[in-house]
Amino acid sequence: MESNKNREVRLGRVIGCLSIGVAIWSSPTPEGLEENAWQCFAVFAATIVALLIKPMPMGASVLCGLVVLAVGNVLGETSKESLATALSGYGDTTTWLVVSAFLLGSAMVRSGLGRRIALGLAVLLGRTVLGLAYAVAGAEFVLSTMIPSNTARGGGVMAPIVNSLSHALGSRADHRPRRAGEYLCLCGAHLNLVAAATFLTGMAANPLIAKETGIDFDWGTWLLGSIAPAIVSFLVLPLFLLKLAPPELKDAEGARKQARSALEKMGSWTLTEKTMLGVFVLMVGLWASKPLHGLHTTTVALSGVAILLITGAEKWKHVKANAAAWDALIWLGGLISMADALRNLGFISWFAESIKNEVLGMDPIVALLALVLVYFYSMYGFSMLTGHIKAMVAAFFLVAVGAGAPPMLTVALLAYFSNLCGCLTNYSTGPIVIYFGLGYVEPVRWFRIGFLVSLLHIAIWLGVGLPWWKFLGWW
């Protein structure tokens, strides 16, 4: 008989999610809201709870929510009309940008280029343990332009390298973890989030910010706003963690030698690696020069996938077998359909209007800062960055702008904090879970350090970011 641990569906949790949805659905519709908007919210709320407590795989939870919307004729006068609306998210450009991100990230890992870049930086900078931390920072910065998935980048490329470097320094999870492994593990996890905040392509769900707010926050605009505070974060965070979790070992020559040896074993650059690098340089160039040619971000990403397939640098069988990409298509397309429906049915504007009174009368900038801090620390209640974005960004944006906050400043803070807030827990996003799973850091220590890192992020991204965004004319 299958054990509870291995079950894909946990019936008790399913019943809990259904109970929440039914309770909301059957309760009186609030004044000023249409009945189908309230019913759509009931399904959305049950789905978000499912993303938190995981009664079944995420894609399955979202798909079940879409079926309820179709069967209940919530989004149209007939089942067919309702189903067509429920499936509209699968044709959204944001959905396909994220799918492309997973496909490109997997191709990067499979080609070996990501590993070569990371090892090369370790050889270049890894004379000390602090130097290795800066090598991780450099690798994250470079790879976040090429691997548009922080899980693929952090979990697939960087975490195994960080773990092997720690072992080379005589530090394992069960043997002297504080010799070097704890520090490097914390650096890897938290620097991954800084990289995710630096580039639109740094985290797969980043494009949702523009979708949820309606602001054209494209690749170049995102980087223009993030670059100043991000550089400070990359420079300061390893030093900050050096104080919070100082490694017992200072010299890292052993790990540097292992990185050099691993790099030598990789041999000379392969044609696939060269093609991969060329494609990503082309993509980054097109993303950065969008005002000159007008190509949409998703068009560029899909073009990159197509070039890899045409040149043979990626194979169709690998594309077909990329479970993460097609799973993302199901859950993200469905969530976009639900979010669009909530907006079109008037729920988001009704909700924002109902809580706007809480911040009316406050200075617009003060109100915005209060809202984004609530948004940041609400991440304690979420187990994925995407769910956090989908559940809260649209409403917080409307409330802040309704209180008089500048739209560009608002979307910037929500965009960057949507990634940085993952520092708070050991369950916030895929790479964090993977780094924590290496076993170098105890849970209580992870939470304590994560909270202190959150204060550093807020100090840097407000202290450096606000003057920078003022200079850019965003407020």
List the helices and strands and how they pair.
Layout lengths: L10 H16 L8 H19 L4 H14 L7 H8 L6 H19 L1 H13 L3 H15 L6 H19 L12 H18 L8 H7 L5 H26 L8 H14 L4 H18 L1 H4 L3 H15 L4 H5 L2 H22 L2 H10 L7 H14 L7 H18 L4 H14 L9 H8 L5 H21 L1 H7 L4
Helix pairs in contact: 1-2, 2-3, 2-17, 3-4, 3-17, 5-8, 5-15, 5-17, 6-7, 6-8, 6-12, 7-8, 7-9, 7-11, 8-9, 8-12, 8-22, 9-11, 9-21, 9-22, 10-20, 11-23, 13-15, 18-20, 19-20, 19-21, 20-21
Structural commentary:
- The protein has helices at 11-26, 35-53, 58-71, 79-86, 93-111, 113-125, 129-143, 150-168, 181-198, 207-213, 219-244, 253-266, 271-288, 290-293, 297-311, 316-320, 323-344, 347-356, 364-377, 385-402, 407-420, 430-437, 443-463, 465-471.
- It has 475 residues and is an all-alpha fold.
- Among the domains are: 1-86, no CATH class; 93-323, no CATH class.
- Helix 8 (150-168) packs parallel to helix 22, helix 9 runs antiparallel to helix 21 and helix 11 (219-244) crosses helix 23.
- It is globular and about 65 Å long.
- 50% of the residues are buried.
